[in-house]
């Protein structure tokens, strides 16, 4: 058994937090892209006369 598991546990926690943070950033970036695409579609489909 490891006599000092704390540093290893800290590294594991830090790694896990880093992965989680990267995944959240990816989700946020995808949400931004989807929102932009929706806005572009709305702009494209809206008749020009209704845009002031």
Task: Give the helices and strands, then pairings.
Blueprint: H1 6-45
Number of helices: 1
Low-confidence stretches: none
Spell the H/E element sequence.
H
Number of strands: 0
Main beta-sheet annotation: none
Q: What does this entry show, briefly?
A:
Helices cover 77% and strands 0% of the residues. The protein has one helix and no strands.
Structural write-up:
It is a single chain. It is built from one helix and no strands. The chain has 52 residues and is an all-alpha fold. It is rod-shaped.
List the defining traits of the structure above:
52 residues, rod-shaped, mainly alpha
